[in-house]
Specification:
The protein has 449 residues and is an alpha/beta fold. Helices cover 35% and strands 22% of the residues. 49% of the residues are buried.
């Protein structure tokens, strides 16, 4: 991926913000870009080599200089002789975060940061769609919601950016706190605290505590906008304004596959998508809009302009039936909510379920419980298809329905292609690791294994 970096830091600012030891210096005037990728480096950049379990960017310092970089960061005393600037730091990722934080403060946009067990990317897109009606705004691209993605997003801002909408992901405790520390949000949104990552964090309490880390560096004069969850109320220590919301606060007037109309706090709003979970996510965007001074008509226009992004309620017509792909991620709560919305909105339903990941030692029981919960809400004409070992447990609790279970995506794709009637609606939900796009590619004829 090519990120555009703006030139709004000079060398003295870079040295000061990074706390680097100056090994080699030159009298270089003007603003300088930071680049972490030698493939897209430009003349005059400073190269910041990142490191990971399977890569060491510091091996490419000389390549960066030969491609036009004026200098580089290093973590030891080895550096290219032809570099004009060499700055030594202990940790290059920490340096990247420090520089991003400096730049965030320098251009001083209002920062809205979003996290949650599910729905955070959709909520980020909804918030952006609303706020861009009034402000010059920048958002996290796709789901680039880790430390590197945070820095990339901040550095992609022009110096006149007014609002920055950031998504914060996590796989372990402490990660959201780290992102909050360097983003210093003015407004924070927690979409929910469900069982995603329970295998890593051990309990629902620990998950809620991890989500509440977003408030650690939240502006005391800002606002926390949170799903009305007992654990989120209990574990957040934010002393500023707090707004708690849920679907219980909403009166739904109408829903279809491509439209929703609802009332929230005596005002009417519309979305160009269906699904109760989309309405609930939209409520947090409404609250963010009002906190940042938007009018009702601006907020409603923003909600109507929202369109789902890849693998999040993505609708296509394939093989004569409608495919609704919501297979970017899955946990028991998000799967039940999205299946419920699908069944409420679409006739002739076929539900394709795959394994849900990172659920820990109780993963089999959680898949069983999901099947039990879905069986209570599904009309009897629903056909279910499960893929994967864990989802066989879900199938066990779907008694009274037509259910087919398969070991892999190819088998499931062949069944769907041969047995689903024209005009049916087929819904896909699974964790990302299941790669359900393989089934969809097969149906399109793009995967003929």
């Amino acid at each position: 991926m090519c990120w555009l970096y703006n030139r709004f830091m000079d060398l003295r600012e870079i040295i000061g913000a990074s706390g680097a030891e100056v090994i080699k210096d030159s009298d270089i005037a003007g603003n300088i870009s930071i680049s972490t990728d030698t493939r897209t480096i430009k003349n005059g950049d400073i190269y910041l080599p990142l490191k990971g379990a399977n890569f060491d960017g510091e091996r490419f310092c000389e390549d960066a200089i030969n491609k036009g970089a004026i200098g580089c960061f290093v973590t030891d005393n080895a550096y290219p002789e032809n570099a004009k600037v060499v700055l030594k730091v202990h940790d290059t990722l920490e340096t990247y975060l420090k520089l991003a934080n400096f730049y965030r403060k320098k251009i001083a946009p209002k920062v809205v940061m979003i996290t949650g067990s599910s729905g955070k990317t959709t909520t980020k897109e909804l918030v952006y769609s609303v706020l861009v009606q009034k402000y010059k705004a920048v958002k996290t691209l796709s789901n680039h919601n880790n430390e590197i993605g945070l820095c990339q997003t901040i550095f992609s801002c022009a110096d006149d950016t007014q609002v920055l909408v950031l998504e914060a992901g996590m796989r372990a405790s402490g990660e959201i706190e780290l992102l909050s520390r360097y983003a210093e949000p003015d407004y924070a949104i927690i979409t929910n605290a469900g069982s995603a990552h329970i295998g890593r964090l051990g309990s629902l309490d620990n998950i809620a505590k991890a989500k509440c880390e977003i408030t650690k560096y939240l502006n005391p004069a800002g606002c926390l906008i949170s799903h009305d969850n007992e654990r989120l109320r209990r574990f957040n220590n934010y002393s500023g304004e707090k707004i708690f919301y849920s679907l219980k606060d909403v009166k739904i007037l109408s829903q279809s596959a491509n439209h929703s109309k609802f009332i929230y706090k005596n005002q009417e709003y519309e979305l160009s998508v269906g699904g109760e979970f989309n309405i609930e996510n939209a409520v947090s965007a409404i609250e963010a809009g009002y906190k940042l001074g938007l009018r009702h008509d601006e907020i409603n226009k923003g909600l109507l302009s929202y369109q789902p992004i890849e693998k999040r309620w993505e609708i296509e017509k394939i093989c004569g039936f409608n495919v609704i792909n919501d297979s970017y991620n899955a946990n028991p709560e998000s799967t039940l909510a999205s299946v419920k919305s699908f069944l409420n909105l679409y006739p002739n339903p076929v539900v394709v379920l795959g394994d849900m990941g990172e659920l820990g030692e109780n993963e089999a029981d959680l898949h069983l419980k999901l099947g039990e919960n879905i069986s209570k809400i599904a009309p009897k004409n629903t056909t279910f298809v499960t893929v994967g070992e864990l989802s066989k447990n879900t199938a066990k609790r779907l008694g009274g329905f037509e259910v087919r279970s398969f070991e892999n995506n190819l088998e499931a794709g062949k069944y769907l292609k041969d047995n689903v009637a024209e005009g049916a609606n087929v819904f896909f939900k699974a964790s990302r690791a299941m790669k359900f796009e393989e089934i969809i590619d097969f149906l399109k004829g793009e995967n003929k294994q």
